Amino acid sequence: MSDTRPEGLDELRNPATVEAQAAVSPTSAKVDVRDNATTLALCGNQNENLKLMERRLGVRVGQRGTELHLSGPSDAVAFTVRLVENLEGMIRAGRPIYREDVEQAIKVLGRGGAESLQDVMNSPVLKSSGNKQIAPKSIAQKRYVDAIRAHDIVFGIGPAGTGKTYLAMAMAVAALQERKVKRIVLARPAVEAGEKLGFLPGDLAEKVNPYLRPLYDALHDMMAVERALHLIEQGVVEVAPLAFMRGRTLNDSFVILDEAQNTTIEQMKMFLTRLGYNSKAVITGDVTQVDLPVGKASGLHHARSILKNVEGICISEFTEVDVVRHPLVQEVIRAYDRYDAAQQAAKALKEAEATVASGTAPEVAAGAPESDTPTP
User: Fold this and answer.
1) Phi and psi of 161, rounded to 5°?
2) What is the CA radius of gyration of the chain?
3) For residue range 311-342, what is the model confidence (pLDDT) as tens digits?
4) Distance between CA atoms of residues 281 and 144, nearest Å
5) Within this chain, do residues 113 and 213 fall inside the same structural domain, yes or no?
6) Where does the record place the PhoH-like protein domain (predicted)?
7) Could you give the CA distance from residue 303 to residue 314 in angstroms, rounded to a whole number?
8) How many structural domains are present in the chain?
């Protein structure tokens, strides 16, 4: 079972639908969803959503018609009631609920904050080509989307799987559809991720295409492939390596720089100074996954430190809690973070021991007993 635990049991939003049995059993409750369609959507395919709640929250969930019967530790039952009511409200608002939505909803409610679950997850950004609604799935993602709407330059910094590039792409496509911009420019530094790819055959476009594949994948997930190819052929959507940005001024554009941790300081400055009128730039990256040669400073890390107080620029930070991929991805990130912290602690201890050893050596020598050999 996950270590996600509810923090602070707020008052139930809709106490009329909940029949708490505190006098008989303080660890049980009943929630009446009231109609079959909403109940089916809430339970999920073969009750997968209810099974997820049981596994993640340590409660038992039974269904009888439109009623859900909950039992378990009192805090977990109260948290599950809040979760069910929030999910019910989202379904009634027309938002389909999938298994991954339940997973993220547990995180959002568990972390608390001013935003309610519906404020976070009922803020659609775009409908993809498959008619699936793209919306934030965490508080950090909601603030990130709001920052992109409110600022012209936004940095999205955090580990893999937090939706930094995907949401930026969704915002770009939405801006294009709403005619707020005339084109989308997607850029990425062509840096090998820890391996030597050797000589790549083909023309220039074919050589750099592997580096830009993640951007194409996200674009094709949001619009039909034929439509995306047509926009690329027209130049309305441009996918290019970062080197192609030099000397340009990008007006009426939504510009995304992905994998920005692999830019040098000079490249980052070059990119940021390309922005023209009526344009937005979103820079995404993970400062823990730098693939630059040893001795080269990351332009993303440098920019974060010198631009954090510049008005009009927003820096959105993500953590492993905001990962929206498979739940094990979050655990992998935490394991690597623990390993890195242990390595740093061991290194610091070794350096401290070396310093102490070098500092006490002269004192030992000075305090050593004098030789019995008489001085001639």
Assistant:
1) 90, 5
2) 27
3) 999 999 998 778 877 667 767 877 888 898 89
4) 13
5) no
6) 133-337
7) 12
8) 2
